[in-house]
């Protein structure tokens, strides 16, 4: 029943607590108060019992002995407290052996406080009241204290460390760890970040892949943005042409294409191809970053998966204006002259038009840091890296991996034909040690 009340899951506010205090003075029932505040009656009852107290003025005016039934006829003068007294704790006081506590039915049953009691003025017992402002202060103090420190036992913390640290040290992002081990992690992701910041785990926050500072973007002028716009290779292949094409053929499979370079020296680089539908990425090692090598890689990929599959799943290729991609004619047609795809180009200096691929390049940089030469790697090394990247769960895919979606949205032979294999979640590694020899 309480779950059906609108707002019952929210904490009481200061205005709610002041309203409770006013209604208690009017001797309103917990049920009527709860109905107005859209709460369960038990919520109001617990609130009153949790925050009732003896005001300081009553504690001074009525000594501790006033809570004893024998107070009027008592002859004991050097003991003012008894162990059964639940409202006072004074280590310096001595306990009275003849103490006989007075029990008021109003305090033992609802409303549990003296608010609204008709006998309050003439009563000589210490009063117990509920005050909304004081209750709010106690609530805020407890809320702050419960969120400080680590709310786990040493054994639970060790168990969580044994689970999280080895995976983080492998380079796995927290999104992947939570997607795989959500049922085993007793805290939310924000709390886990806080624990890493507090250095309670073997892994530290510096081991997280994205714990870096981004470089400030370079400002570009209108002249620099327009430099490549009028070149021949972009004729009827601009981003606006791409949008018009997709509006006319919405079911076309889109592939984003780019290259990843190791350093400024000439040598090997990576050609990346990402299916927008499932984030599955194919990575091909090129001997040089040239137009000829890109065309040869596309031809080799066509031969590997067959022209029929290439036409079906590479309906459109969207790439940037890099010099290695400025030969769209040989990319669009197979060596025998048969049409196989359409090539379109992003606007200059607007990389978010193929943002999914740019985001996936982050995973490559976890394994091959920027500035490191790629001449030492082979295609088998690159396939191993791509297998681990495509086996990493993503928040953008609702916790699924590109491999899992590729099995549904692509031909199941494609991952196998391009040399990739699914990696078990806990074995995923996104560190340079993955392909270092």
What distinguishing features does this structure have?
437 residues; alpha/beta; Nucleotidyltransferase, domain 5; 18 helices; 38% helix
Walk me through the structure.
- Helices cover 38% and strands 7% of the residues.
- It is an alpha/beta fold.
- The chain has three domains: 2-145, no CATH class; 154-207; 231-434, Nucleotidyltransferase, domain 5.
- A five-stranded mixed sheet has the order 3-2-1-4-5, with helices on both faces.
- It is elongated and about 115 Å long.
Compose a concise summary of this entry.
With 437 residues, the protein is an alpha/beta fold.
Structural category is: alpha/beta
**DSSP, total strands:** 5
Q: Strand sequence of the main sheet, in spatial order? A: 3-2-1-4-5
Taking all residues together, what is the mean pLDDT? 85
How many separate helices?
A: 18
What amount of the residues lies in strands?
A: 5-15%
pLDDT < 50 runs, ≥5 residues: 58-62, 82-93
Output the radius of gyration.
Answer: 35 Å
Helical amount: 25-40%
The ordered H/E elements are HHHHHHHHHHHEEEHHEHEHHHH
CATH-wise, what's the superfamily of the largest domain?
Answer: Ribonuclease H-like superfamily/Ribonuclease H
Which descriptor suits the 3D outline? elongated
What top-tier CATH class of the largest domain fits best?
Alpha Beta
